Amino acid sequence: MENLTQAIVDRREDLIALTQDLIRIPTLNPPGAGYRTICDYLDRRLQASGFETELIRARGTPGDSDKYPRWNVIARRDGRTSGDCVHFNSHIDVVEVGHGWTRDPFGGELDDGKIYGRGACDMKGGLAASIIAAEVFIATHPDYAGAVEISGTADEESGGYGGVAYLAEKGYFDPQRVQHVIIPEPLNKDRVCLGHRGGWWAEIETFGEIAHGSMPFLGDCAVRHMGAVLTEFEDKLYPAMAARTTDMPVVPEGARSSTMNINSIHGGQPEQDEDYTGLPAHCVPDSCRIVIDRRFLAEENIVDVRDEVTALLEGLKAERDRFDYDLREINVVLPSMTDRDAPIVQTVAAQIEQVLGKPAEFVASPGTYDQKHIDRIGKLRNCIAYGPGILELAHKPDEYVGVEDMLDSAKVMAGALVDILRPE
User: Fold this and answer.
1) How far is C-alpha 161 from the chain's CA centre?
2) What are the backbone angles phi and psi of residue 282, rounded to the nearest 5°?
3) Which of 200, 241, 329, 376 has the fewest Cβ atoms surrounding its Cβ within 10 A?
4) pLDDT beneath 70, residues of the chain
5) If we measure between CA atoms, which residue out of 72, 98, 220, 229 comes closest to residue 160?
6) Cβ atoms within 10 Å of 77's Cβ, excluding its own
């Protein structure tokens, strides 16, 4: 272990350069840009380290097109004898940049031991740490049994259907093929993440009647109807959700209750192009739409989650004049939790204690990640999230990952490979 740990420390500059290279490939999702570019980069890197690689396009999945194809890369390196396979899975996509940055979001700037950029902690730093961990393990323990796999997959930020879900359907996460999965999401280097809450996404549309804006009484304002929906949510749904708590070890503390985010709202006339200089037309809006992002607990039932919102809407329909609505379900993800005594949980927890000198914390994620597909589609339960990065920095301006955190996480990952693959 001393040789392995020192070898990781000696690869510090390589780890920094690798992380910077990954950040400097803008893989924004939506729309799904740069996927082939980053997969080609990983393909070259891992082939040079002795891995056999495969590039896989998830044809026909949501978002896949000739302009924005959903590419994934999987690399495998077999040991000298048979044994278990340990798979490190990282998503290659990042969310929109947003406002408030003080640094180049795709510059990969290194400052005071931190690498800045969109996707630095979520999760290109984790991907880089897993690659360094695997390369160092193979170099220091060439006689291992089993196999090491590394994947870079698409679309986790939009559900993972062009990435892990597609690969799981094709058998890449079959328990006969892969036995242990580590997903280097940024849950902090001293935590083992066992799973995540559930998610229900839906679009609600309220209807009205178009009329001249100077005579709104001749029409029916769909935006006002949506205002009534939001008031019902504020007065009834949000207090009810806040009163519910879970036994899941969800972090941060606010996510121990049910939550809902109003993801977007659109009502009335569509926004014009930026170069449009005219004034809006005078119309009463006949449609208003919101998208809701409802996160629910293991103790809640998805049927009850749906029915709770529907009951509020039906109540308005009965009480409010001319109120009508449509509810369209967008996606459902059920909660997922790996047993605390699962082999990968115990192995990584032991390595955290050895590397960091303190017991591992066991947590669950407030948001979903690709464990849901490995669990539900792949039927592989021996899966956790573990990686460098501060969870609260994900999707924020001036996102960064600490170099020391990546090095420590790489030591934990490499130590886990030693424990599981038992090199001679």
Assistant:
1) 12
2) -95, 85
3) 329
4) 424
5) 72
6) 19
Sheet containing strand 259-267, edge to edge, reads 259-267, 287-296, 198-207, 325-333
Contacts 24+ apart (CB under 8 A), 354-358: 354/1, 354/415, 355/5, 355/408, 355/411, 355/412, 355/415, 356/189, 356/190, 356/408, 356/412, 358/190
Quick: pLDDT tens for 268-319.
Answer: 988 889 899 999 999 999 999 999 999 999 999 999 999 999 999 999 999 9
Question: What is the pTM assigned to this prediction?
Answer: 0.91
d(CA 315, CA 322): 13
What pLDDT digit, counting tens, does each position of 142-189 carry? 999 999 999 999 999 999 999 999 999 999 999 999 999 999 999 999
Q: How many CB atoms lie within 10 A of CB 269?
A: 10
Q: Indicate the Cα dihedral angle 17, 20, 24, 27, nearest 10°.
A: 110
Contact 126, 369 (CB under 8 A): no
Of the candidates 321, 326, 238, the one whose C-alpha atom is nearest the C-alpha of residue 288 is 326
CA 386, CA 159: separation in Å to the nearest integer? Answer: 19
Query: Which residue's structure tokens are 């009965």?
Result: 318
SS3 (DSSP) at 30: coil
C-beta contacts of 160-163 below 8 A and 24+ residues apart: 160/91, 160/369, 160/370, 160/372, 160/373, 161/58, 161/61, 161/62, 162/32, 162/58, 162/61, 162/62, 162/63, 162/64, 162/70, 162/72, 163/58, 163/70, 163/72, 163/91, 163/93, 163/370
Mapped onto helix, strand or coil, the DSSP state of residue 71 is strand
SS3 of residue 205 by DSSP: strand
3-class SS of residue 82: strand
CA atoms of 407 and 401, how far apart (whole Å): 11
**DSSP at 177:** T
